DNA sequence: TCCCACTGTCATAAG
DNA sequence: ACCTTATGACAGTGG
């Protein structure tokens, strides 16, 4: 069923032809065609429009009807001024082919009342010259009601209304060139919703702006991202050209990102205020398109890459490292997913750097209010913001990590301003110092941990030694008691020459060199000094126990 | 509001 | 002379 028509503001139309004429079949939205025709006939009443809609819907169900019948069927229902009809006929230029086209052409030309200017328009439009048709790569069924029925009122061509109906089903081959003649309603998703083609009444292909844009786009990789029809169409016309171009290219980028990563995306719409993106787009003078801030990060590389490459080095003063292949940036996907403004001029970069420095703290404050789970670039460090502002195509981590030779080579091989060189060196210095501080703190913590472990080991050993010491003390005490007991036992068994017990307060047991065992106590000190010298080698003695 | 741990940065010395 | 590393000191941040 046809989607309710909506007022197209140009921006919502742009980009909608994605894929049209290049890859996929497009259903024709009759209402969209009707809108275009309404633009030609703003004076038509609502009742007549409704009647036309009903008739067109009926015509869809009667697609097998011959064009001759359709001519009669819709005759008198669509009124166009001669000039407007010319536009309509021009619109069909290149879109129709084959016998059906020829038959319609003949029908049109055979109408005697048709104004001369209109007939000339038909001849010039290519309807009379099927050879102008440029076959496209894919057969597309569209414009199911493009039958042309004319009748004459017999009045002055300048004032009379010519009734024209477009009710013929055609099978067309689309070429990119053909697609430029169409405007489409933009689908919210590229693969699921019907796309509605609108016939475009006028198309100023002679605009110099278009020529420049086409040449530029052909030279850029954008042509690989968007159907040429989109690009040309969005540049071809409209007073809001810049806005439209940005919108369309944004959608193209989003689509590519989506297609590459199959990333679930909320309702994209066409508004830049969509919830998933805070991207602000900019267009440099050379036509390169990028966004300078708040890019949703889809990189899995942590810090990601700040910036990328430009294909046209002569146009944009960007930073492109050509040195060590290990550090070269060849991943165009990463370039696409990250900053694209590095191809601005260095002077522009310096001005934006200051702006970034001023806004960085503000952004950091904003981060506090946001969900920390988000991975927006507001989580980037100051250096990363600066690097992005200067369009340095390396991440801060890469700048700090790359060998000094590679770093110097990068500085030498690129046309860098003093600001850029200084910033690069600062980034590298801070990055390396950051890592050094991290390593140092890690080592410090490791050292502290090792010292704590040493403390634990020493404390354990201390406790062990204490236990051993106490064990030895107990052993010593036990041996002392044992020895005293033995000493007393031996002493009690000693007798003097008269057989009397020895007084322990007057004698001590001492094995002298002359064979004696007991000696008087007052002689112990002198004897002890002598025996000490001897007795140490003999295992000691029992004096003083 | 204070405390504390963590982190980044700067300055400086040393290699 | 230049670069890197180590380290103390300081400030910001978040729990």
- The helix-and-strand class reads mainly alpha
What is the CA-based Rg, rounded? Answer: 49 Å
Low-confidence runs of at least 5 consecutive residues? 1-378, 535-545
User: Major β-sheet, in short?
Assistant: 3 strands, antiparallel
Distance between termini? Answer: 122 Å
Beta-strand segment tally: 11
What is the molecular shape? Answer: rod-shaped
Counting DSSP H or I runs of 4 or more residues, the number of helices is 17
Portion of residues in helices?
Answer: 40-55%
Major sheet: arrangement of strands? 1-4-3
User: Mean pLDDT score, rounded?
Assistant: 48
Which H/E pattern describes the elements?
Answer: HHHEHHHEEEEHEEHHHEEHHHHHHEEH
Portion in strands: 5-15%
What's the quick description here?
The chain has 545 residues and is mainly α. It is built from 17 helices and eleven strands.
